[in-house]
Amino acid sequence: MASHLSTRDRLLSLIDDIELIAKEIIEVAIAPKPQKLSAADHAQLTELLLSKDAELKKTLELADEQAKIQEKMNELKAEVYNKDQDISLLQRQLKDAEQILATSLYQARQKLASIVKSRKRPVPSEELIKFAHRISASNAVSAPLSWQPGDPRRPYPTDLEMRLGMLGRLCDLPLNGHAPSTLNDLHRITTGGVPASATNQFTWHPSGELHMSVGGGNSVAIDGRGKDAPAQEDVEVMSTDSSSSSSSDSQ
Amino acid sequence: MENNTDHSERLSPITVQEVDVDFLPIVYEIIRSVERDFLDNSVKVQESQGCSLKVIDLQKKLDIARTQIKRLPGIELNKQDQLKQFEILQTQLRLKRELLQKYRNMCSFETSFK
Fold first, then answer.
1. What are the boundaries of the region Disordered (chain A) (predicted)?
2. Pick from B21, B34, B55: which is nearest to A60 by CB?
3. pLDDT classification of B11: cutoffs 50, 70, 90
4. For B87, which DSSP code?
5. What is the per-residue pLDDT across A100-115, written as a single tens digit (0 to 9) for each?
6. I want to staple A14 with a disulfide (CB 3.0 to 4.6 A). Which of A3, A56, B26, B63 is the partner?
7. Interface residue B75 vs chain A (CB under 8 A)
8. What predicted TM-score, i.e. pTM, was given to this entire model?
């Protein structure tokens, strides 16, 4: 029964017992002679008081031990709390890593799939070099090193070539509901003569601005450059092969 | 006021050595003064008053001991239950350490492609 009680309750009940016994002893001592207890009973009460006092002291020793255990438990609790913090931090980091890895795995799988695909249909390197040579031979990538103003070899089309191309011809499409229904129609339109209205649609001005003429003879300046000058400088630096003759190309 | 006292009692734990449980000397003194026979009446009255004071002292001492016991740390449970709790905490800490170790050692990646 007593073992189920907490040490605090045991101590408090022992004090209650000591109080009761002490009161009993004092009352007996005060009581008139006929009501007094026999010496044996008195001795028994005294012994009981002594045993309770001894038990109280013993229980206090136990409380001292428990206080030390409690101290260790507090340290353990603090350590458990720290570990909890570490675990939650690690879990969060692992979760992040998992997300990053999942993305990388997805991309790696895509790359592996494309590797497998390329292995199934290999292209010989000679073929690739030949094709690259064909592309660069026509100056479609960059102008030759010995390029001079007026040289038609360049990696972009001239104004005239643009107007003759499909994009230039698309501007001449009739707007009265007749749209080219077949590829042949489109081809016929684009391979026809250059219309007079298209010839002066874009004109270069010495200032370097591109002007597009709209109805009524007005022209709208299209600022091809960036808003800030450094950006424009960057563009000029990057395209050294082809930008030096923008004004003379339209001739 | 009493609530504040209770609160401060709960906040400041004391050690067992600070608990005063020496009740026997006072009980002994009380009994001795009761059982003494005095011929002089005035001395008898004086002794009786002294005895009453000692009884009040005993009562006070008992109350103080109760209050002090309530401030003792780690005695909310009996020793067996406390040791069980201690073991539970130790197990918890061991498991958490193992979990942390597992988390730290789990970063071994398979790098070979098949």
1. 218-251
2. B21
3. low
4. H
5. 999 999 999 999 999 9
6. A56
7. yes
8. 0.56
Distance from CA of B52 to the nearest CA of A (A): 11
Question: What's the gap between Cα B2 and its chain centre?
Answer: 20
Q: Would you say A147 and A154 are in contact if contact means Cβ atoms under 8 Å apart?
A: yes
- Residues in CB range of A7: below 8 A, 6 or more apart: A59, A62, A63, A66, B75, B77, B78, B79
Which of B66, B74, B89 lies closest to A67 in CB terms? B74
Can you say how many angstroms the Cα of residue B50 is from the centroid of all Cα atoms in its chain?
A: 31
Q: Are β-strands A219-222 and A202-204 bridged in parallel, bridged antiparallel, or unpaired?
A: unpaired
- Most distant CA pair in chain A: distance in Å? 149
Dist CA B79 CA A65 (whole Å)? 9
Residue type, A30: I
Q: Does B31 touch chain A (CB under 8 A)?
A: yes
B14 Cα distance to chain centroid: 7
Nearest to A66 among B23, B82, B99 (CB): B82
